[in-house]
Amino acid sequence: IETLVYPAKWDESKRREYRDSRRLAYVSEQPVWWCEQLGTVLANEEVVDGKSEVGGFPVVRKPMRQWMLRITAYAERLLTDLETIDWSDSLKEMQRNWIGRSEGASVIFHTVSERLPIEVFTTRPDTLFGATYMVLAPEHPFVSQITTPEQSLLVRDYKIGVAKKSDLERTELAKEKTGVFTGAYAINPVNNQNIPIWIADYVLASYGTGAIMSVPAHDERDYWFAYKFGLPKPQVVLPNTTQIEVAREFLSEMNRVRPNLIVHDWTLDKDSVICGASCVSKAFDDSGMAINSSNSEISLDGLPTAEAKEKITAWLEAKGLGKRTVNFKLRDLLFSRQRYWGEPFPIVWKKGPDGQSYHEALPESALPVLPPELTDYKPTATGEPPLARAKDWVNLPDGSTRETNTMPQWAGSCWYYLRYLDAKNSTTFVSKEAEQYWMGKVGRAVPSAPRPAETAGPTPGVDLYVGGTEHAVLHLLYARFWHKVLFDLRYVSTTEPFFKLVNQGMVLGEDNQKMSKSRGNVIPVDVPVQEVGTDALRLFEMFMGPLEMVKPWSTKGVEGVYRFLGRVWRLFVDEKSETEFEQAETTAGTGSRACESAEVRGLTSAATKLLDLIKLNPAIKDLAATPAQLKTLHACIKKVTEDLDGLRFNTAISALMVFVNDAITWETKPVSVLRDFLILLQPFAPHLAEELWEKLPTVHSPQSTGKTSAGKSTMDSGLSAGDSLPYQPWPKFDPALLVESEMEIPVQVNGKLRDVIKVPANADNATLEAAARASEKVQQFIAGKTIKKVIVVPKKLVNLIAG
RNA sequence: GCGCGCGUGGCGGAAUGGCAGACGCGCCAGACUUAGGAUCUGGUCCCGCAAGGGUUGGAGGUUCAAGUCCUCUCGCGCGCACCA
Fold first, then answer.
1. How confident is the model over A117-127, as pLDDT tens digits?
2. Which of A334, A409, A556, A593 is most buried, most CB within 10 Å of its CB?
3. How many CB atoms lie within 10 A of CB A706?
4. What is the per-residue pLDDT across A512-550, written as a single tens digit (0 to 9) for each?
């Protein structure tokens, strides 16, 4: 987001090239992940273990011209702003990992014969004196240039072998290092030594510069490579005494456990001969003190690692041989797909006077670009996008052609939450007013620290976002990126889209395994919906356990909450009328369970009439509630209210069950109490709650906390109606009603529970202690002993320390 | 290997450092029933006739008091993984 200034001599194509090198959306020809079965390319994040994340199909690297989004330009902010949002540690960690920031230095080595500059990235510039060879990724562009004729055959074969291997194979075979010598040498800039240049597949073309300097004494991978090919391993970092201690322990422990194993210890001679079939080594890759690291201009000897890094980097910078560098694992986001279903790019291609084609954005007046109608919208085998089939659509009258790739699904999911704020706006994606109102921070320019839970007031961004971890490095990363771009363009007022994120746990199959077709343990959601209805399904999913936890499905468990809903139903309706209803229903042939919701059964008007046969439980009376009933109700209000706030649905439902278990025994059931109960039940079992609400009569009793007349459901119409259930004010619990006149206090002797005593609720500490001492059971345990100490926790417990 | 998280009955799970096992499932007994895979009532951590004792993966520690806090250890799950 900057104004570009071009040198005057640049022609238009040069300028375009420069623009593309800076743009957030740019075209790039490079190897990308191509999935044959899906008929499209995929982003790095969509490839898991060498297979497509969707469907698990094989993917291959293939060079193609694709649209990219420069998410790497936001890497630093995507990382640091994680501090400002309230997400789980594990999720933040996943994003940190994916972004993969590491600080170090880039160092330039020149090849001996061609004087080609090979740039490497290292996090340990302090070990530069220990670099005894270099390794290029087999795909590195210099490989063919530097390879000597004698080595060219070997190098060619190795490259072919690597290219044939899938990425999966490449990592699976990772234990044994392989590689070949190119025949070329480079100069180590600190000691002018000629060091051999190898190629090996343990160096990745996609990370850093695709080339490394190898320091075998202080890097595990380099160590084993050097070990295998007999390269020297000079030590340039000295461990401290504690580290040596730890290593000695490791050494003796390994010798004890596996006496036949040759253990290679970095405190011993690096080049000692290792024999035996297997061995263990620990290259010393910790911080320590630099040794053997000096030349005529600079000495690192004696410096701790951190200082040595500083000194050598400064020296390299001064000599123009390297510089301080921050490297990221994060790659730019591949943002085009060869599919029909996706947003077309608002882009056309034109031919310049130089004959080169270039892209141009369509003006706003040409938006939106709608996809053409196609009879065959399937992907092609060649990777040509299906939209290319619509010749009339592709070719424009002025001779330009439309971009035929489409955007991936992320194009929608990256900003839908903003569109939801103002979905009917036809001039802009979200109005300033709607955005500022809903996202909550007018004119906000800097992110705030995560708020403590007790702080009131609006939060920046979406207050609560619930989703699975499967989006950790996909949607949740992309959306943050888009949001930051929109923030920089002043379209949104917060730097982060989702303030608080909760990962709901996956529901496993009944066998405690991840549901999958191959395991045959999938419970399609419509099965429980058919059997017990949406209310029971919804209720059970919330009742199974904490929201965040992974938990297995249980058919028996669903029956349990279904029974609970049955008990709720029987709390409200006259069982005799229910029998009449069932008979009438059987006659009418609508055949279904009485307590299923109207929506699930798809009630006809005849069936609705049938439902009118259901009469209220005669025990329901418009009477004042007793203190005991009010206590039961208010305990439930308190628990459900607090648990909903904390997303503890399982314990909230448990509280509802406790209420029903009690209320079902009441001889008279005050309408006012039941109305409040239905308000509490409504978020959990909305259909049942609304049906029962409609049956409840008007309330006149003084305890009424609801309104005074029954109303019709508005769930479907979305209209506000005076007494409909969804619009009822949430009941407030009255602490005064929960106060007991008596309470039970556990009494411990020496920390062990000995009795539970009943005392008046307002008993002071002295009374509590006296009552505790007076207890017969307690007497048994303190007889003949002296009480050394008494701990009285008001309203909680008494602990007598006797000895 | 690195990072994150989790270990409590037969099962899913409750428990601001203060009565471990709420609530539900399952199981046992009983009631009503021609019947029960419906419903209701009671019981259900382990040892013990009882008094009592033991018990939150294991070992230590802090504390009057630990499932909860600390250290180590074992086990499980998830994520990343040749990232220089």
1. 999 999 999 99
2. A334
3. 22
4. 778 877 777 888 888 889 889 999 999 999 999 999 888
Judged against a pLDDT cut of 60, whether residue A141 lies above it is answered with: yes
Q: What would the two tokens of residue A624 be?
A: 């004042």
Of A20-29, A340-349, A779-788, minimum mean pLDDT range: A779-788
- pLDDT, residue A270, reads 38
pLDDT of residue A698 exceeding 90, the answer is: no
Taking the C1' atom of every nucleotide in all shown strands and the CA of A329, the nearest one is: B83
pLDDT at site A598: 44
Cα A282 from Cα A267, distance rounded (Å): 10
Strand nucleotide closest to residue A655 (CA to C1') = B23
- Max Cα separation, chain A? 109
Q: What is the b/e burial string over A65-102, where b = at least 16 CB atoms within 10 angstroms of the residue's CB?
A: ebbbbbbbbbbebbbebbebbbbeeebbebbeebbebe
pLDDT per position as a tens digit, A592-606: 444 444 444 444 555
SS3 state of residue A390: coil
Task: Kindly report which amino acid residue has its CA closest to the C1' atom of nucleotide B3.
Answer: A93
A554: nearest nucleotide, CA–C1' criterion = B12
Average pLDDT score over residue span A332-340: 91
Q: Integer distance in angstroms from CA A61 to C1' B82?
A: 19
CA of A793 to C1' of B71 (A): 30
Cβ(A800)–Cβ(A749) below 8 Å: yes
3-state secondary structure of A108: strand
Q: Which two tokens stand for residue A651?
A: 């314990």
Which nucleotides in chain B lie less than 7 Å from some protein C-beta? 3-5, 11-16, 18-20, 22-26, 38-41, 52-54, 64-66, 77-84
Residue-level pLDDT at A383: 83
Give the closest nucleotide to A172 (alpha carbon vs C1').
B82
Question: So what's the pLDDT on residue A164?
Answer: 77
How far, in Å, is the CA of A563 from the C1' of nucleotide B29?
22
**How far: A620 CA to B43 C1' (Å)?**
31
Secondary structure element (H or E) that encloses residue A636, with its range: helix A627-645
Cβ neighbourhood burial of A230 (10 Å; 0-12, 13-18, 19+): exposed
- As given in the structure block, the two tokens for residue A37 are 């079965």
Q: For B1, which residue's CA is nearest its C1'?
A: A220
Q: pTM of this prediction?
A: 0.83
| A590 CA → B26 C1’, Å | 34
* Nearest CA among A67, A188, A204 for reference residue A135: A204
Whether A82 contacts A484, CB under 8 Å? no
- Sequence letter at residue A344: P
- How many alpha carbons fall within 13 Å on the CB side of residue A54? 15
pLDDT tens column, A605-643: 555 666 677 788 888 888 899 999 999 999 999 999 999
Q: Residues A336, A30: contact at Cβ < 8 Å?
A: no
Q: Provide the pLDDT for residue A252.
A: 62
Q: Which ipTM value was assigned to this complex?
A: 0.93
The helix (run of H) or strand (run of E) holding residue A570 is helix A555-572
Rounded CA–C1' distance between A734 and B7, in angstroms:
39
pLDDT higher than threshold 90 for residue A33? no
